[in-house]
Amino acid sequence: MDKRFDEKLKKDLVKDAGPLPESYKERVAVLLENLPHNQMEHKKKFKFRYAAVLAVFLLMASGARAAVNMYQEYLSSMSREDKKDLNERTQKMADNSDHFSRELSNNERDKIERLRDKYENDGLFAKEKILETDKKSEVKAGKLTFCYENSTFYIPDEELTDEEILEIIDFWERRDYAVKEENRGTQVSDKGQKISQKEAVRIAKETLRKVYGLDVDSVESSIEFDLAELSEKESMPSYFIYLSKDAWDYDTCTEVDSENGTVNQVSISHKTKEECVSGIKANEGKYEEYAGQIYNILSAIGEKDDDVEEICLIYKYRKDGTLSRGNVKYLVKLKDGSGYVFLYSANTELVYNFYKVYHYADTLRQENRKEKRQKQNGILEKRLTIQ
Amino acid sequence: MKKSEINEQYFVKIVEEEKDLMFRLAYNIMQNIADSEDVVAESICKAWEKRDSLKDPAKLRNWMLRITVNLAKNAVVIRNRTKLVEDCGEYYSSKPDEGTNVWELVGELKEKESTVITLYYYRGFSVKEIARILHVPEGTVKSRLSQARKHLKDLM
């Protein structure tokens, strides 16, 4: 580790941070003053809610694997029957959230934090499993119990002991694990979506085959559903399909609109090479020539050549003639005012990301703003319009 | 029996402590003030609305930071598909005699890298704490930090 760089970075981040915008501080203050006091009903977007509570947006398939440790081994030793039972009882629960039969003290909250750390990292597990019951009528006073009927931990009036807290933590962890394992591969609900999961995977495979010439037979796939909310009434549902194969040099992610099957975004990540590197000499002729490949990609995803109004090639370089981030951007303007952005890596010599934009003019405006700012920092820009 | 909940006082305390970080995490991704403010506002509302679903109240801080990053990532997708109606304003700017504002360089990084740089170097969270906030393994955090350092050095 470069200590000098680290120290400098820490200092610079604080020095350059600047005060928060006044508009922001005021907005937060107003929000906090007006926190609603009514309990709002939790939206149950997904059946498998413990596996996907937050809408998660991932562009790149991660190749990282969790380190094996005692905690992982303990969870993975759960029997199939235990996982199935825990998952089924959890899915039947009417309430989306857990409750406690009384308010926890600050000391109890601190203990939960401390003991969770020991549970996950030091193998400090509960001696016994928490008592579970399906009905409120079966709860015995003074005995730590989780009741599925109302999703409530019934806890003694006295301060919780370490063992009791560990039993609660253990229950949370085993439940999360069981739900995740039992619903692996089926975490996406295509209920109400015009495009099914199966069809989305087919579209993703076909796209990668046509655009990158990848052999998509026997490919491994996983899929996530994302419901990005534009407003209370409007949302943008799409699938994120991760396809991978040992024989490929890449991990891939394709975003498919679940309403109409449009490919909104494709991202590939080289397993061993970086897409963005510095020090590569700019080669304008090569980038101009590559525009032909952009047309091929557009055609592969269903866009017609005639619909393309223009392609704008943009690359940023330093005074020594090297690309500033090792990539080249192609902005494609379509006749209907929408467009695409393609990012080409000079290192891997491939388009590693492309996505649809619905208002090309706005995208261009953002590029113009960036250009001004970067010029001040000594980064120069070249633009070419290719018909 | 009474329902337990994160009380308003505790919630406000956490937001006040983390509003600076939440803004900077959002700005790294959104790159303009208005969108960043929207993301943080939505994060606060969402966290308040769903506070009872948080299994462990002591995790409120980490949870809110994660919500902020995830909402910002979502918002960028939405922005690609909606029309810009106003100039949204930039926050960091470099003064000619003072060199590049380092936050502008951080904004040039991929989202995964800018997030760990901000959490580790600006806020001082440990690798373990960052892994908990982002729900990724510690090894992944270390790897992202290493890549981010390399890329920042290239940009500087």
Can you give me a brief rundown of this structure?
The complex is a heterodimer of chains A (387) and B (156). With 387 residues, chain A is of the alpha+beta class. Helix content of chain A is 35%, strand content 24%.
How big a fraction of the residues of chain A is strand? 15-25%
Mean pLDDT figure of chain A: 79
The helix content of chain B, as a percent range, equals 55-70%
**Which structural class should the secondary elements of chain A be placed in?**
alpha+beta
Please give the radius of gyration of chain A in angstroms: 26 Å
Q: Tell me, briefly, the overall form of chain B.
A: globular
Average predicted local confidence, pLDDT of chain B? 82
Whole-number count of domains of chain A = 2
Task: Break the fold down into its secondary structure elements and pairings.
The complex is a heterodimer of chains A (387) and B (156).
Chain A (H helix, E strand, L loop, with lengths): L2 H15 L4 H12 L36 H7 L3 H13 L6 E2 L5 H16 L9 E3 L11 E3 L4 E3 L7 H21 L14 H16 L7 E10 L5 E10 L5 E8 L5 E8 L13 H17 L7 E10 L5 E12 L4 E7 L4 E8 L2 H17 L3 E7 L1
Parallel strand pairs in A: 1-4, 2-3
Antiparallel strand pairs in A: 3-4, 5-6, 6-7, 7-8, 8-12, 9-10, 9-13, 10-11, 11-12
Helix pairs in contact in A: 4-6, 5-6
Chain B lengths: L7 H23 L2 H17 L10 H21 L21 H7 L2 H12 L4 H8 L3 H18 L1
Can you tag this structure with a few keywords?
heterodimer, A: 387 residues, alpha+beta, 2 domains, four-stranded mixed beta sheet, 9 helices, 35% helix, 24% strand, B: 156 residues, mainly alpha, Rna Polymerase Sigma Factor, Chain: A, Arc Repressor Mutant, subunit A, 7 helices, 0% strand, globular
Write structural notes for this entry.
- Chain A is of the alpha+beta class.
- Chain A contains nine helices and 13 strands.
- Helix content of chain A is 35%, strand content 24%.
- In chain A, a hairpin with a 4-residue loop joins strand 3 (145-147) and strand 4 (152-154).
- The model of chain A is unreliable at 37-68 (pLDDT under 50).
- Chain B has 156 residues and is mostly helical.
- Chain B has two domains: 1-91, RNA polymerase sigma factor, region 2, helix turn helix motif (Rna Polymerase Sigma Factor, Chain: A, Orthogonal Bundle), CATH 1.10.1740.10; 95-156, Winged helix-like DNA-binding domain superfamily/Winged helix DNA-binding domain (Arc Repressor Mutant, subunit A).
- Chain B is built from seven helices and no strands.
- Chain B is globular and about 50 Å long.
- In chain B, 49% of the residues are buried.
- At the A-B interface, helix 1, helix 2, strand 1, helix 5 and strand 12 of A face helix 1, helix 2, helix 3, helix 4 and helix 5 of B.
